[in-house]
Amino acid sequence: MNGGAHTGAQGHRREDLAENAFGLGARTPGPPRVGAEVELIPVAADTRRRVPIVAAEGPGTLPLLRRFGAERCWREEATPYGAPRWMLPDGGCVSYEPGGQIELAAAPARSPSALLRSLRAVVPALRAAARDEGIDLLSLGIDPVNALEDTPLQLPGARYARLTRFLESIGTGGVRMMRQTAAFQVSLDWGPDPLARWRMLNAAAPYLAAIFANSPAYLGADTGWRSFRARVWRELDGGRTGIFPCADPVGEYLQFALDAPAILLGGDEGPWLPFRAWSGATGDDWRAHLTTLFPEIRPKGFVEVRCIDAVDPEGYAAPVLLLTGLCDHAPTLRAALDLLGAPDPALLEPAARLGLSDPRIAPVARDLVGLGLAGATALRAGPDDLAEARAFFAARWSAAAPM
Q: All domains of the chain, ordered by start, with CATH?
């Protein structure tokens, strides 16, 4: 491909990102939506060993989900990669992560309270049913007991096999991330000012990681990190994660995506060349490549916040109200931008290690929570949800003593 054609392809990809990833095209009509993905780590209640999807002996999560789903009219189907998933009557989906973690992707809702009702209708009952079968579904950022070698790849399909080979070629962090971690991800519509929302969330990412740090243990011992999950993400290939300066959001993300190794292209064993090296890559190749990038904040036609450790069901209101309050109330969004300033990647490491005991992070995080809850109140969040969120944050600060 000649240089002009290559430049033309980059121009088309920039336009694709601007319109389809960053929401700079047509707006979704109606009130802004909010969604969430809840990940749960299954372990045996007695031995704490990981519970696989299908077990030769002992409990497995596939029979559990089939029984639980049948009682609630869930519809089982196969993913494009051949794994089972269940479509819920309200539009949500329950599926598996590569290490057998269970994920509930709630249907996008028009209000935080509606989203929280949807999550609460599934997760506590599922955890109780699992416990009756000798399985604990952990809401922690990382499996606190089991070793990576005791957590094999659970999902079929070339995508996961290739991703595993690539991640193994650059160390253990990526494979551990894929098989052993769990998050509470929040997704939001872009709203009237997508680029302001992008800048604010990238700047907020270290503070969110610190506020919701929930994975201090690994291999049965204290790691010295508030969020060992966040530390594992820092071990991942630097070309696939992190936060962005936000001076030119679309251009920065374009270069990030072009520079990232194209895991899904080429031979099964590599070499793993940057996407920009594949002059014959198609639009479908480009869109598939984007799904293999894992920044703390990800543009997907909506904005996905990925930096929060898994949260117990009793605290679900905290991340949902905080983020909707910060993003969907315009005065609060402006105030948060003023508070946070430019995104600072150097804060990601202390956020993971020290959490809210870091003296640079704690006061800004406290002010950020105050802004988010004020925004949620202005948006008329439910009083019970606000009370739950306030109780969660109060407990976080009381537990933030230095390690």
A: 31-244+295-312 (3.30.590.20)
